[in-house]
Design a protein that fits this description.
This protein has a single domain (3-184), classed as TIM Barrel, CATH 3.20.20. The chain has helices at residues 3-7, 18-26, 42-61, 77-82, 87-108, 133-150, 163-175, and strands at 12-14, 65-69, 113-119, 154-160, 180-184. The protein is 48% helix and 14% strand.
């Protein structure tokens, strides 16, 4: 059954604020607000697993499905470069992130679950981004392909600051064969 079909007629729980929770509630240092490097070591994977299991338990208690986001909001080329990761390392960590989330879901979810590949903006999530959807699609394509290769159920672009980048992520996800959701950061006046 497809992700849109699953979501149609039932309640779902989503996780929220992964990086904020890890920093402020668990004292974990996340350079550049990036959580994807945690997938690379035992302590990081344990912290992520604990975070995800909390949401799976909430969903189980509510007899709801659960959608968990991969820790990949910053696992894109520009932020990866800043943090010292090349394209091959990003591909591996994006795929390992999907595998980690899926493993948690398979072992502790209530039966209805989706693994969502989290995509963040190319730049800062609070400053306007580029104006070319084709460029954005090309930029985000590798991450979408990594999610598809690892078996993610959908792509979720978060904190997009402009329509062009959102459109680009939609195109990249569709090219990878995945459904996609896009959420935007808006100004206090409610506009992009």
């Amino acid at each position: 059954m497809s992700a849109p079909d699953l979501l149609a007629d039932s309640a779902w729980v989503t996780d929220g604020g992964l990086e904020t929770d890890l920093i402020f509630n668990h004292g974990i240092d996340l350079p550049e607000f990036a959580s994807f490097p945690l997938v690379a070591d035992d302590a990081g994977r344990a912290a992520l697993t604990a975070y995800y299991r909390e949401y799976a338990a909430i969903a189980a208690a509510a007899d709801a499905g659960v959608v968990l986001e991969t820790p990949t909001w910053r696992a894109n080329p520009d932020w990866g470069r800043v943090l010292g990761y090349d394209a091959a390392a990003l591909d591996r960590l994006n795929q390992e992130s999907v595998a980690l989330v899926r493993s948690v879901l398979e072992s502790s979810a209530p039966g209805r679950y989706l693994t969502s590949g989290a995509v963040g903006p190319r730049g800062d999530g609070y400053l306007a981004g580029g104006d070319d959807p084709d460029e954005a699609a090309e930029y985000h394509a590798a991450q979408a392909r990594s999610f598809a290769a690892a078996g993610a159920d959908l792509v979720h672009a978060m904190t997009m600051t402009g329509a062009a980048e959102g459109i680009g992520v939609v195109r990249a996800a569709r090219a990878a064969g995945l459904p996609v959701a896009v959420s935007f950061t808006v100004e206090t006046d409610g506009l992009l």
